[in-house]
Design a protein that fits this description.
The protein has one helix and five strands. By secondary structure, the protein is α+β, with helices and mostly antiparallel strands.
Length: 104
């Protein structure tokens, strides 16, 4: 497993380095104001993206959140590296029902 190094930490935000990438994590509420809080994170390799993969819980610790974030991000990278699947396309129209002789 790649080495992980803690860089800074507070109650609702922290950063760490894993496999040469810096992950900056923080708890933020979803909009509108007052909505549930989620863990958001940025990765130094992702210039314009940030992710909110799961809700913040009162018992969250940096170690638990770090593990969840690394699992999520590793899975995301694996899905990006895999073949592209097109699941959203239009389905073929169903064949018309056969006419039943004698039906009104």
């Amino acid at each position: 497993m790649p080495e992980t190094r803690e860089t800074r930490e507070t109650h609702d935000s922290f950063a760490f380095v894993d496999a040469g990438r810096t992950f900056t994590c923080r708890v933020e509420p979803l909009r509108p104001a007052g909505a549930e809080a989620w863990w958001w994170f940025r990765v130094s390799d992702e210039v314009r993206a940030r992710f909110a993969p799961f809700r913040a819980a009162p018992g969250d610790t940096p170690e638990v959140v770090r593990g969840r974030i690394l699992g999520y991000y590793d899975d995301l990278l694996a899905r990006r590296a895999g073949p592209v699947t097109m699941g959203w396309g239009r389905r073929r129209a169903a064949a018309p029902a056969a006419l039943v002789p004698g039906a009104s």
